[in-house]
Amino acid sequence: MESKKRDLEKIYSSMDAVGIGRVAEIVLEEMKNAGKNDSDLHVIADSFKIYEEEMKSAKEESLFTNSKLIERVYFKDFWDYKVRTVDRQLLDEVLSMRFMENPHKNVIIWGPSGTGKSWLNMVLATNGCRMLKRTKFLEFGKLMRELKNKRDAGGNAFDTRLTYYSNLDLLCIDEFLLLESTEENDDAKINIAILHEFINAIYKSKKTHLVVSMQCDPYKMEALLKPKSIGQSIKGKILEESIVVHMGGEDLRLYDPRNEN
After folding, report:
1. Residue 5: pLDDT band by 50, 70, 90 thresholds?
2. Which residues neighbour 217 within 8 Å (Cβ) at sequence distance 6 or greater?
3. H helices of the chain, where?
4. Mean pLDDT score of the chain, rounded to an integer?
5. What is the rounded distance in angstroms from the CA atom of residue 132 to the CA atom of residue 121?
6. Nearest to 84 by CA among 104, 57, 66, 111
7. Taking the model in full, what pTM does it have?
8. Element (H, E) at 250
9. More confident residue, 69 or 184
10. I want to staple 169 with a disulfide (CB 3.0 to 4.6 A). Which of 118, 133, 194, 223 is the partner?
């Protein structure tokens, strides 16, 4: 018994020295609760498994915080109303997150206001965090203001921010193109130029997967962007090999579910 105690003390000391003292703490806790038939090796193996789950949970929590999601959103809360029109097979494909296995594979969610586009975008962002992927969720307007401020600041601020976004695993952008991009003014033109550089950086990285939710038909997005040549370039890079999900139906924020009967 004394020999076993010394061995445990050695294990604790060694683990603490290499920065995994928490595993030693778990081992000691599990040893106290172990049954007579539980081998020491089995208890140590279980302790490492507990530690692994703790580390995963801590990393997921950190990724969720950094993602800027206000709350975790889960597909189990999907409202399957009759007025909602969406290809469920395509939806299942997107929710599997397999699109992240291929470069340039993005997800475009589009449809009228109130049909669940932003909600589905947040579901995918939540899934990304749960998969321990570096994820960011933000609105298009905020993104454009941030990038413009970085470029106006001069130096390397703008390029550094582009590098940051193009090294994420999953970038979820809500209300895409909902900005003053149709206006004929210098600010709008600058925003289009910034957007073009941003999309180019994402495209060239072959690392960041985009999830974009928008109200306009993505196949006609160049109509909102001037000059048309830049709009076509942006459209092509976003849509290449992408999964396009159309969320149709009525505005569910105004829909009375009692009408289902």
Report:
1. low
2. 110
3. 2-17, 21-33, 40-67, 88-95, 117-130, 140-153, 157-165, 186-205, 228-239
4. 86
5. 17
6. 111
7. 0.83
8. none
9. 69
10. 133
